[in-house]
């Protein structure tokens, strides 16, 4: 251990997304290759001597206790736990969450060391994994509010690969088997008799961890929500969501020396007639079992919406992935030019 193939795969995956900035400590990790990376894991991160590193992924993460702070992390999956090596800027980002992080090492700030927080979620504590719409993100849930993390991969391939690796590692765990289920028919297995509504599709792994996937009704609910935001649309039943993607909105900040750009996470939804940007809560829904009250904000909050017919042109950058798109809309105050034109305007 480890095989050459595994080391090559982990080395290839060890690349920070080019559009995101990280601290020097994580830049150091991203510079490690092959055996050096495995040795770094065993000497600095691994908690048990005989655990094996199986997968590495760079992703933005959100914590249930700090839902407003998205932070870059190196996610390491081993045969014992999932490790989130966090950007050290996260510790100071939210003052209200000071009890969430242990700050014993804060006196080292001015030294030459670059420290990172490492959040550990043991596989034995894992209860469920919720996969988001179109595999754009997934939420890992443990036994308490401290153990809920959402990985915003913004990439269906990365999500799928991580889920596959996680299932493979969970298969190695020795857990007491669940009691044999009573035979159920299809309708009692997948539906609620009270409401007749199909529940989200659940796959219960042999390790008793639930993998929960969204069903088509979630898209229907989203389409209904989008329709509510569209005033004056007569044919609501024909509304179709053509595209759902987690993206960033670029806000240019004019600085004294040079203009910089900040990236605001947004959910982009395209219908046959409109383009919407939503602020989405990726961490609070569906409600965890221990939640005593609903979240303070809705799952989807409309940030901006424009009609496709007002779209003038689309500018595409020439850089490699991720691609930057600029949508230029006609700057017309009155949404519909034709609605107030009457014969009176052409009188004497």
UniProtKB/TrEMBL annotation:
One of its GO terms (biological process) is lysosome localization. It is found in: Cytoplasm. Residues 241-347 form the Nischarin C-terminal PH domain. GO terms for cellular component: endosome membrane. The keyword Transferase does not apply. One of its GO terms (molecular function) is kinesin binding. Residues 114-178 form the PLEKHM2 PH domain. Keywords: Cytoplasm. Its main location: cytoplasm. This is NISCH protein. The lineage of its organism: Eukaryota, Metazoa, Chordata, Craniata, Vertebrata.
């Amino acid at each position: 251990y480890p095989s050459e193939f595994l080391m090559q795969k982990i080395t290839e995956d060890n690349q920070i997304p080019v559009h995101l900035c990280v601290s020097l400590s994580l830049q150091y990790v991203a510079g490690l290759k092959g055996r050096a990376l495995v040795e770094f894991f065993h000497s600095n991160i691994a908690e048990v001597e005989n655990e094996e590193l199986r997968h590495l992924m760079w992703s933005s993460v959100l914590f249930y206790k700090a839902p407003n702070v998205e932070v870059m992390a190196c996610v390491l999956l081993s045969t014992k736990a999932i490790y989130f090596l966090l950007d050290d800027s996260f510790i100071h980002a939210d003052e209200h969450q000071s009890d969430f992080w242990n700050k014993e090492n804060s006196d080292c700030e001015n030294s030459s060391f670059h420290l990172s927080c490492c959040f550990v979620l043991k596989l034995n504590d894992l209860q469920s994994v919720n996969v988001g719409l179109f595999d754009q993100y997934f939420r890992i849930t443990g036994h308490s509010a401290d153990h809920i993390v959402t990985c915003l991969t913004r990439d269906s391939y990365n999500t799928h690969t991580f889920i596959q690796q996680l299932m493979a590692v969970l298969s190695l765990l020795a857990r007491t088997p669940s009691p044999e289920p009573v035979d159920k028919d299809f309708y009692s297995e997948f539906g609620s008799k009270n409401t007749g509504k199909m529940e989200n599709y659940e796959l219960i792994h042999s390790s008793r961890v639930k993998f929960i996937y969204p069903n088509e009704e979630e898209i229907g609910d989203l389409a209904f929500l989008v329709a509510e935001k569209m005033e004056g649309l007569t044919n609501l039943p024909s509304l179709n969501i053509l595209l759902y993607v987690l993206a960033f909105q670029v806000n240019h900040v004019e600085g004294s020396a040079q203009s910089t750009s900040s990236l605001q996470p947004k959910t982009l939804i395209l219908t046959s007639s409109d383009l919407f940007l939503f602020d989405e809560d990726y961490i609070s829904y569906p409600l965890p079992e221990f939640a005593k009250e609903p979240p303070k904000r809705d799952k989807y909050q409309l940030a901006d919406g424009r009609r496709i017919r007002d779209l003038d042109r689309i500018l595409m950058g020439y850089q490699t992935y991720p691609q930057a798109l600029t949508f230029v809309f006609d700057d017309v105050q009155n949404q519909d030019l034709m609605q107030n034109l009457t014969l009176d305007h052409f009188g004497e």
